[in-house]
Structure formats: structure tokens, C-alpha cells
Amino acid sequence: MTSNKLSAHAPKVGFVSLGCPKALVDSERILTQLRAEGYAISPSYQDADLVVVNTCGFIDSATEESLDTIGEALAENGKVIVTGCLGAREDGALVRQAHPSVLAITGPHAYEEVMHAVHDHLPPLHDPFTDLIPPQGVKLTPKHYAYLKISEGCNHRCSFCIIPQLRGDLVSRPIGEVMTEAENLVKAGVKELLVVSQDTSAYGLDLKYKTDFWGGRPLKTKFYDLAQALGELGVWVRMHYVYPYPHVDEVIPLMAEGKILPYLDIPFQHGSQRILKSMKRPASSENALARIKAWREICPELAIRSTFIVGFPGETEDDFEQLLEFIDEAKIDRAGCFKYSPVDGAPANDLPDAVPEEIKEERWHRFMARQTEVSTSCLEDKLGKRMTVLVDEIDAEGAVARSYADAPEIDGNVFIDGATELKPGQFAEVEITEFGEHDLWGRVIPRT
Ligand code: SF4
What we know:
46% of the residues are buried. Helix 12 (317-329) packs parallel to helix 13 (357-380). It is built from 13 helices and 20 strands. By secondary structure, it is an alpha/beta fold. The strands form six sheets. A five-stranded parallel beta sheet has the order 2-1-3-4-5, sandwiched between helices. Iron/sulfur cluster is lined by residues 154, 156-158, 161, 163-164, 198-199, 282.
């Protein structure tokens, strides 16, 4: 088949998914719809009748990667539809200028618009057999874990971020819909649900925490109710993008009781109150250290992952020292760190006192060194302990698994050398025998 002709069989769509887990969920929805309508998904540009590129426009390097990918798809295939965050920049003009021949451009979570564009340029064949799709849809992640997107957009206006400009204010999905999707995923074999959004702790605020129904049972569209209901599904439930608001306290006992994983991904971004205010961060006036201490009194094993920015405009040596003290005192188990870089259209670009690049670089190295110490000491505490792990893959050396403290892709691993009898998606009990800076090693505890 040539790349630009319609096939006599199912029309084939090539799909490239760039960006964050939220964009991945958008891709999964579009792929699910494509499959539902009888389209085949092509693994190569040449074999596809048309290509959809889901782009990211969060930072300049992501914009470049997205524009390059569109160029590549145009060169290899010729028929390209662009969706995602970059498509929303300047109402599509940014993409249009670089690549005038793309067929259509939409912003993020524009499933219907993408499908309309696909129908216009590649009409579906009607085939009752290919119309059937599994109820859990099409997943891009391995079979045993899945991202569960609970809302879109964000009500905050952090000064370094343009996501609200791209994605709009918070729009939560009703809890009944989210729970039905979660239940279908579990029925299809998913062992771990990763809850994602821009602000998970704000879930339902836009719907005034409206009551909805799941299996005939009334539930409020609210963070706590969601955590509790997901905790009944019998799989790992991991919460991402939570802010340290007082109402998050309610969810900690669910972690202590083993209903959901004792893991919180909280993008703190800084430890200095002055910088947090200038960043306009959510919950910046809360005493995060006191809150974390109280959470750990209820649930001592709580693991916290976070991201930070160094070199934000106006950051002094004193602010930076406060950040280092914060990660020490809060015992942040896992952390990513970015050197501040301006994003087109972000209000922080107008802030005075830009930090010189060499100071940003130096602070980044100091941050990473301190974080490695904190992470190593948290992992050392696990030595000799018994942990449940979920196996991701088997390689030549054994099983590569994760504990409750490790989200896929971003955190560490638990390696079980020699355990090639285990299978991906299987839970195992291990005793931790070794620790490193970011990973653990263990041996399987045989069942008695
Ligand atoms: S919380 Fe702040 S950084 Fe996160 S999406 Fe909203 S505005 Fe952006």
C-alpha cells in the first residue's frame, strides 16, 4: 500500500503521542474512538493513510520536538492532523506557520474535532466486526497499569505556567464516569491506576462536588470520595498532582489502612515562601512541613515525590538554602528538578532579577546532590524490610519491579535478580537486600 491512498481494507491511521501522561490519556481516547469506528492503527508512517500527531507545547524543547515530529510525518506520509497543547498556541498559527500543509489543527482534549478531521480526510469503512472494541478502550501503557484522567484544565495561575491558557479552567469528569472507566480497566487486567489531572486535590470543585452514581450508588464528585471508591477496586491506586490543602488530610487514613497507596506526588516547586508567592503557587500559604509531619504521624510509610524549579527570577542564595532545607526536613523521597526557563506567554517572564545561567546550573547540581542523599537515606530505611512489588518486565538479569513508592517512568525500581519465573503484571513479596541512590534490590520471599 502506498502512503497516500485509501486501502480497500480498514483505513489506517498512524499515531504519534508526545508529552505528559495527560496528553497520553487524550491519545488513548482518540485511539479508542478510531478503533471503535473501524480504523486500523499503523505502526509506521509509510503504511498509514494519514497520521495524527498529539503534540506538547509546555516548554521550548517540547515545542521544537513537536514541530520536528510534524515535519517528519509530513515528509514521510504527507497527510497530517495535529492535536494537543501546541495546536492551541496562538490558535494554531504557530503550527500553521511552520507547516502550512497540515490538514487540521486542534488543541488538547478535542477528541470530537480530531475525529471530524479524520472523517473529512479519511472516511471510515463500515464494518460491524471492527466496530467492536474492548470496553476498557485501547491502552498505550503496558497492560498492567493505566492512567486515569479525572479532570482537565486548572483554576490556578502559576506565574511560570501557560497550561490554563492552553487548557482552560478546571473541568472535572463526573465521578460515575471516572469510576466506570476505572472498573473496566480493572476488569481488563489493570493492576495499578495512576490518577492524573492538573490539580487532583481540586477534583469536583467546578461541579460543586455534585452527587453522581456508580453502580446505583450515590457518590460525591470529590477527591476523598474518589479515593475511597477507587480503594475498593482491589488494585494499586496512586495519586498524582495533589497540593497540600487541609482537605487532603482526610485521604491519609485511607493510605494507612492500605486502601490506596501511601504515595503522593506533590509538585512543591520550591521551599521558600517568598518564591512560592512570586510563583503564585496553590497552597503557598500553607505550612507544608507541618502538614507532612502530621501525615507521617498517621501514615509513617508515606512516600512523597515532587518537582522543583531552581533559578526562578528573584531567587537568592538564602531562598535556595531554604529549598535545600525543605527537601531535607520534608524527607522528599523522590524529586525532579528543572532549571527555570521562560515559557512564551508566561507572566513570570516579566519578573525582575533573572538568575544567571551559571548560577542556575550550580544550584541545580547542589540540589541534585542533596536530593540524592535524602533519597539514599529513605531507601536505606527499607533495608531488610518486606515489601509488595509489582513486576513491570523481565530482562536477562531477572525481574524489574516497583514498590508502592515508585511510580512508573519517573521513580526508581526494585530489581529482583534471577527471578525470571515472575511475569509482568504480577505482584510479589520481596525482602529488600540492597539499596542504591534511587533503586532497591530484593529477593522473593517464597509463599509458605
Ligand atoms: S497548578 Fe499551576 S503549574 Fe499546575 S497547571 Fe495549574 S497553573 Fe500550571
